Q: What sequence folds into this?
C-alpha cells in the first residue's frame, strides 16, 4: 500500500469517527424525563389516573414544545429556554408517549413513555370475588 | 358427610356436565387460567355473649390472619378459594368451591358447583361444675351457579339443593350483586345479597335438639338461676328465611402486585335464626376488614 493510500485511509477513518461523534452529540442534546414512568389501575381496561412530572434539558437555548402523542395541541411550550418542567394530569387506558419538539416543527428531539399497567386481567375467569 | 350420597350426586352432576359439553363450553380464549393472591387481613366482627343471668352482651372481636385467594380453571373445571370474603361463622361466608363451567354466553356463565357454604359452628356453655360444647358440622353443598359479568357489575345466583353433611338437608339459594366505580385509581364498590335457607339448614346452625337441651340442664346445675337457664334453652327449631347482606368496600393498587382494600359488611339474619337461644334476638352482624394483598 502506498503512502498516499495509507493517508487516505487514515483520513477516512478520522472523518467517520468525527461524523459518529457529531451524531452522538446531536442525539444527546435533549434529555426528557418523566416521573412516574408507570400508571397502575386495578383492572385491565380501566382508565388510569396519574400526575406526571416532566423535566427536560437541552444544551442549546431554543423554543421547545412538549406534546402528548395522542394530542394535537402541546401540553406546554417554552421560548428561549435551555430547560423546563411541566406537570400533566394523565387519564389513560393505554401507554402514553411524551415528546419534546422544536416549537416550529414536530421533529422529535426526545421522548419518554408512561406505561399503562394493571393488577387484574380483564378475563372473566380471573374474577374471584364472591359475597357468598 | 354421607359418602354414598356424595358419590351419587357427584356422578349425577358430572353426567350433567359431560352431556353439556359443546363448543360453547370452551368459549374461553385460553384453556388454563390461574389467579392467586395472599393477603394479610385484620378486622373486627360483632359477637354475642350470653351471661349466666341470660343477659346478652354484644362486643367487637378483633381478628387478623393470612388469607389465600385462589382461582384456577382448566378448560371448564375450576377451583376457588375466595380469600378476603372468607369470614368466621357469624358473618357472611364464602367457602372453598370446585365446579365445572359448562356453558358461557356473552354475559353469563353457568357452573355445576360444589361449595362449602357454611363453616363449622361451635357453641360453648360454661357452667360452674362442667362445660358443654355444641358443634355443628360445616355444610358442603352441590348445585348450580349462574354468574353475570357486565361492565361494572358482577352478579351471582346459586341454587344448592344437595347437602353432603350429616344431618343437614334442605335447600340453600343465594343472589348477590356487586357494582364498582372508580374515584381516580381507587375502586369503590357496593354489594348486596340475599341468602335463603330452608328450615332444616337454619335449624342445623341455630336450632337446639332435645339432647342438647338436656345436657344444658345439667351444665346449668349450680347456677343460682338454673331453672331460668333450663327454661331458656328449650328445644328450638328455626323456620326458613332469608339473610340479607350489604357491603361497602374499596380496593387501591399500590403497584402491579400490591393492593390495599377494605370493607364493612352488615348482615341481617332472619327471625328464625335471630330468635334462637344462641342469638337472643340479635339479628345483625357487622364485620369490617382491612387487607394488604400481594397478587401473583
A:
Amino acid at each position: 500500500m502506498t503512502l498516499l493510500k495509507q493517508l487516505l485511509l487514515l483520513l477516512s477513518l478520522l472523518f467517520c469517527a468525527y461524523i459518529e461523534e457529531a451524531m452522538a452529540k446531536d442525539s444527546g442534546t435533549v434529555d426528557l424525563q418523566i416521573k412516574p414512568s408507570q400508571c397502575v389501575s386495578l383492572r385491565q381496561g380501566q382508565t388510569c389516573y396519574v400526575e406526571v412530572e416532566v423535566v427536560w434539558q437541552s444544551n442549546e437555548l431554543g423554543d421547545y414544545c412538549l406534546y402528548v402523542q395522542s394530542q394535537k395541541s402541546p401540553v406546554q411550550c417554552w421560548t428561549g429556554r435551555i430547560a423546563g418542567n411541566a406537570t400533566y394530569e394523565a387519564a389513560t387506558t393505554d401507554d402514553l408517549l411524551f415528546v419534546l419538539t422544536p416549537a416550529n416543527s414536530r421533529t422529535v428531539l426526545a421522548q419518554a413513555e408512561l406505561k399503562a399497567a394493571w393488577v387484574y386481567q380483564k378475563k372473566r375467569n380471573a374474577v374471584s370475588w364472591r359475597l357468598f | 358427610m354421607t359418602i354414598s350420597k356424595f358419590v351419587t350426586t357427584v356422578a349425577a352432576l358430572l353426567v350433567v356436565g359431560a352431556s353439556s359439553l359443546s363448543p360453547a363450553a370452551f368459549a374461553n380464549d385460553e384453556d388454563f387460567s390461574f389467579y392467586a393472591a395472599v393477603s394479610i387481613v385484620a378486622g373486627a366482627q360483632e359477637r354475642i355473649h350470653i351471661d349466666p343471668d341470660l343477659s346478652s352482651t354484644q362486643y367487637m372481636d378483633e381478628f387478623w390472619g393470612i388469607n389465600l385467594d385462589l382461582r384456577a380453571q382448566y378448560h371448564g373445571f375450576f377451583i376457588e378459594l375466595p380469600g378476603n370474603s372468607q369470614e368466621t361463622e357469624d358473618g357472611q361466608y364464602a367457602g372453598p368451591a370446585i365446579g365445572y363451567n359448562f356453558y358461557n354466553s356473552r354475559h353469563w356463565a353457568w357452573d355445576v358447583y360444589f361449595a362449602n357454604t357454611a363453616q363449622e359452628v361451635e357453641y360453648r356453655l360454661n357452667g360452674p361444675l362442667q362445660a358443654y360444647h355444641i358443634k355443628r358440622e360445616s355444610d358442603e353443598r352441590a348445585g348450580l351457579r349462574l354468574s353475570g359479568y357486565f361492565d361494572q357489575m358482577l352478579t351471582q345466583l346459586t341454587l344448592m339443593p344437595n347437602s353432603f353433611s350429616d344431618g343437614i338437608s334442605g335447600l340453600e339459594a343465594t343472589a348477590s350483586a356487586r357494582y364498582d366505580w372508580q374515584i381516580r385509581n381507587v375502586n369503590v364498590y357496593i354489594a348486596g345479597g340475599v341468602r335463603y335457607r330452608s328450615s332444616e339448614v337454619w335449624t342445623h346452625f341455630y336450632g337446639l335438639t332435645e339432647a342438647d337441651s338436656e345436657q344444658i340442664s345439667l351444665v346449668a346445675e349450680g347456677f343460682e338461676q338454673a331453672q331460668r337457664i333450663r327454661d331458656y334453652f328449650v328445644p328450638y327449631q328455626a323456620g326458613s328465611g332469608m339473610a340479607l347482606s350489604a357491603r361497602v368496600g374499596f380496593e387501591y393498587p399500590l403497584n402491579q402486585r400490591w393492593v390495599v382494600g377494605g370493607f364493612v359488611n352488615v348482615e341481617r339474619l332472619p327471625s328464625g335464626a335471630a330468635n334462637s337461644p344462641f342469638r337472643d334476638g340479635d339479628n345483625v352482624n357487622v364485620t369490617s376488614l382491612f387487607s394488604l394483598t400481594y397478587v401473583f
About this structure: The longest helix of chain B spans residues 3-19.
